[in-house]
Design brief:
Length: 321
């Protein structure tokens, strides 16, 4: 294809009650995915996604599985439409945080059973070691200004940049007292957004070292295959192909930040021109558009959006012949 496509997979945070219900209604392959994830996880993901309360859906163990099911359902719809694995249509795939599991399954590196079971274990391990910590979002300051905010809070506990999503968009993880001080300092410096996130887990930072050890021991029992097209690591912001490195990347993700801005800034290097976000919402679509890296981006969270993307991919395939 002359247009190089990347499929991107969101992490937790974009979920909403009703997500995937129209896909389940309209596409048999989507129904199969939701039922498959429910069987493996031993919980009714259709009830949680379509009819459950927002509080129930927001539980980490449910959010990650719901997002994975929604993403893979869309991937399978595309595969069914064109009769080929998703990785044959993509120059690359990338997942944001737990979205790496969705990407690795779709890139042929992780089996469905393993991905679902590891996501459930990951959520449980993180919750078990969470302690008095959480996350905060800061938008509108530079990285240097963020560093100064963190210096001011140094005596109040641990804090670390856990997501760098845009030039001026950061997520900080750490102890509650430190995060509160960082938010206040960011507001004084004129941040457009400076707020605590409604999560009880300080993800992607050193406070998750206990969870990383538990996950690493569990991961040793899982078989990983080499990705069948280019797959981005959140930690290196580069392609990764060795199965052992992929396994390590998922474990390291627990204590290391997500370099999403750095990933997007490589798109021009590889001439990646189209991105399709597979999963709920449009968080990554918005980030890619704002990054101004020469890459068009579309979300696919509803049946209407999926049909539009199927048509667009079909046009790309015709032009590339």
């Amino acid at each position: 294809m002359s247009d190089k496509i990347i499929f991107v997979f969101p992490g937790q945070g974009a979920q909403y009650v009703g997500m995937g219900a129209d896909l389940f209604r309209d596409f048999a392959t989507a129904r199969y995915v939701f039922e498959q994830v429910s069987d493996i996880a031993k919980r009714d993901m259709t009830k949680i996604c379509f009819n459950g309360s927002q509080n129930e859906l927001n539980k980490p163990e449910n959010t990650s599985l719901a997002t994975f099911a929604h993403s893979v359902a869309i991937a399978n719809i595309i595969e069914s439409e064109y009769g080929v694995p998703l990785h044959t249509l993509a120059y690359a795939m990338a997942g944001h945080s737990m979205g790496q599991y969705s990407a690795l399954h779709c890139v042929g590196s992780m089996k469905m059973d393993d991905a679902v079971q590891m996501l459930a274990a990951r959520a449980a391990y993180m919750q078990d070691v969470a302690g008095a910590g959480g996350m905060a979002a800061i938008v509108g300051l530079s990285k240097d200004e963020i560093a100064q905010c963190m210096v001011e809070a140094a005596g109040l506990g641990y804090a670390q940049i856990s997501n760098h999503n845009a030039a001026d968009q950061f997520v900080i993880s750490g102890h509650n007292a430190a995060l509160d001080a960082i938010v206040e300092s960011a507001r004084r410096r004129g941040a457009r957004i400076a707020k605590r996130l409604n999560v009880s887990v300080p993800a992607h930072c050193a406070l998750m070292s206990g969870a990383e050890k538990l996950l690493r021991a569990r991961m040793e029992k899982i078989q990983f295959d080499a990705p069948k097209t280019n797959w981005y690591s959140n930690q290196t912001a580069q392609f990764m192909s060795n199965p052992r490195d992929v396994r390590d990347a998922l474990c390291n993700q627990m204590t290391h930040g997500v370099r999403w801005l750095d990933i997007m800034e490589t798109f021009p290097t590889y001439n990646i021109t189209r991105a399709y976000e597979l999963g709920p919402g449009r968080t990554l679509t918005g980030m890619i558009k704002r990054a101004n890296v020469g890459c068009a981006a579309c979300q696919t969270d509803t049946a209407t959006n999926v049909r539009a993307v199927l048509s667009e991919i079909g046009d790309i395939m015709v032009k590339s012949r």
